[in-house]
Specification:
Strand content: under 5%
Number of helices: 19
Radius of gyration: 28 Å
CATH topology of the largest domain: Serine Threonine Protein Phosphatase 5, Tetratricopeptide repeat
Largest sheet: 3 strands, antiparallel
Distance between the termini: 71 Å
Structural class: mainly alpha
Shape: globular
CATH architecture of the largest domain: Alpha Horseshoe
Order of helices and strands: HHHHHHHHHHHHHHHHEHHEEH
Number of domains: 4
CATH class of the largest domain: Mainly Alpha
Amino acid sequence: MGSDPQYASYPNLLLSQHIFTLRQPNLSAAYATAQKILTASIKEHSQAPLYRYLAHPTEGVLANKIPWDENLYNELKAKNDEELKGYEDELKEAEEKAGESEIVAAMGKKAEFWARVVDKEKALQAYEELFAKTASTGAKIDIVLAMIRIQMFFDDKHGVSKNIDRAQRLVESGGDWDRRNRLKSYNGLHLLSIRHFSDAAPLLLESLSTFTSYEVCTYTALVLYAVLAGTISLDRVDFKKKVVDSAEVLAVLGSKGGPIPGEDVDMVDASSNTEGFESLEMLINSFYTCDYKSFFISLAEVEDRFLTKDRLLAEHKAWFVREMRRHAYSQLLESYRVVSLQNMADQFGVSVEWLDRDLSKFIPSKQLNCTIDRVNGTIETNRPDDKNRQYNEVVKQGDQLLTKLQKFGQAVRLRGSERA
């Protein structure tokens, strides 16, 4: 299993969800809760850098959402300066009188301090210095994971990507089972954030049975991410096995209230309770059973309940909804050679005109292999013939092989004549 992870307490990534909420005009109903939680955290943990980053009148990203109090900021900064001096004195004493382990411990406290108060640049710098001084591979992995969380907090996708590659190399050189699994969750969430749903799905689904990374998201949030990534990317067989019939998924989707063990009920993200998961359950079941009318209804509910409100999913909301509609259209059309527009519109619970417009978004780019005949009111599929495609591929490859053999034969004959 390996030792318990180090440096895993800070920063609290759930705070970044509340920052996201306050930056969305359409989530004003949740502003009061988000403000309360952020303000409480700033005061409890003396987070002067975070307070300035959020509320400063000219530089704060939430200058109009969180009130600025100069006296409060000065009070928090004074506490930070006093605490930091204690860590620096401890480090100086360790360097003068103690050994390497004491120096590393003092450097770790200083790095965690900057992560706690959420100062990105100083935290990353402190962790880099700690990384250079640390000998243990496991501890090095923990340090890189801490840096990833700081970058996730500030939505630094490029930095996250570089450090995930760095952590992967460390894990391959000697990471234990627990750290491998933690990195799998981190990587899955990062891939989801950059819209690589097909790559994220296996990592997130595999993490469901071994999840311990509560420092990056709640378990219910992980289930949400895994289900959405799997629904949009898995083939029908794997979708049934890994999502529809998954024991871990069913345990959450079938829950009727109450927190999941290990989660912080006082500081939750947009998807950390089971309220509204009925729509997610309806989405996957209706998609699998081809109940397209229920599928469209549940897709709209999932968009409103989760995609719009979640900081990782919101920027991919329009793409996800569009792709899920395309998958549903493709799934239905695979069963028909010709289908009437009216029949298909009835199955999806929409008008013929709306369906015609929506299908027209996918047909020109060959995302759907069909044509619409408005005169006769039909849709005709023109799926590629796999047998013909395979036959043409074999012929093409055979021609290439014969050409290479002819060139080889000519080269052999030339070398033979040279010897003669």
